[in-house]
Design a protein that fits this description.
280 residues, mainly beta, 0% helix, five-stranded antiparallel beta sheet
């Protein structure tokens, strides 16, 4: 393998452990880990056996979890030594894309992706829970649901956000959100958190959501614009895992076209989540 040929790298840091996954020139997923804050790295481990792309990585309890896309979503996990991987396990068997993964402090993993249940028809958002083994269709409608993101916290609450087209003229894309507090056995109802401003009788276009959780506080940011060459803005909304409700008084941030979440811990027992607008 040419070490200089790679794409789609993802990184996760857990105490002194730094773990990285990427797609190699051979179109396989590779993994490497440092246990000394990145001063040195162990040998590269090949963790996929067939063409794969879009690797994701998350850590929780004593395990590192990875996911990637290969027509369906192939999922594998590893112990914290970063050497011995479990066998590949297929989570879905149809056309899937845009996988994301999160692990709570109990070691329960949640994997989301967009998938076409009937081949190349409309795409829905599916989530898999390692605790229950359940696969749940979170959107389940006749329009496209895209770009899902997932986060999980120490209280066992998982948060999933995605963008969805809500009409046939493609002028109404909204950001939707669901949560579970029982390891994925059941999910709260769908919430529309963007409620974009109207455009010629239709709502605006909200897409590219990002989500981050810290100590039960959740921040969701997304790009929002009315289309037709209009400049997009960045919106953000916050929630608390105590009541699983979204505060709908969204704060508007105007700047670049990318929402980047920055988590700040002042070190005094409190936590805050800022939204940084960048043009990268």
């Amino acid at each position: 393998m040419d070490a200089n040929s790679f794409s789609r790298p993802e990184i996760i840091v857990d105490n002194q452990n730094v773990s990285v996954v990427w797609t190699g020139q051979d179109n396989l997923i590779h993994f490497i880990q440092s246990t000394d804050d990145g001063d040195s790295f162990n040998s590269i481990v090949d963790i996929s056996s067939a063409f794969a792309d879009g690797p994701q990585i998350a850590v929780g309890s004593s395990n590192i979890f990875t996911a990637w896309v290969n027509n369906g979503v192939i999922f594998t996990s590893t112990s914290s030594d970063g050497v011995n991987f479990s066998p590949e396990s297929s989570i879905s068997n149809t056309v899937a894309a845009n996988a994301d993964i999160a692990v709570d402090s109990n070691g329960d993993a949640y994997l989301v992706c967009e998938e076409s249940p009937a081949g190349f028809s409309n795409r829905d958002v599916f989530v898999w829970s390692s605790s229950t083994g359940n696969i749940t269709n979170l959107s389940s409608d006749d329009t496209d649901s895209l770009n899902p993101k997932v986060r999980a916290d120490s209280a066992g609450v998982a948060y999933v956000v995605w963008s969805e087209n809500t009409d046939s003229d493609f002028l109404d894309d909204e950001i939707f959100y669901r949560t579970t507090s029982d390891s994925g056995n059941s999910w709260q109802g769908i919430k529309n958190i963007s409620k974009s401003p109207s455009l010629f009788g239709s709502s605006g276009i909200s897409h590219n959501p990002e989500i981050h959780e810290l100590n039960g506080d959740v921040a969701i940011a997304w790009e929002d614009g009315s289309g037709f060459g209009e400049e997009s803005s960045i919106f953000a909304s916050t929630t608390s895992s105590s009541d699983l409700e979204i505060y709908l008084n969204s704060t508007q941030y105007v700047g670049g076209d990318t929402a980047q979440i920055r988590v700040v811990d002042p070190g005094n027992g409190n936590s805050s989540i800022d939204v940084t607008v960048t043009s990268e």
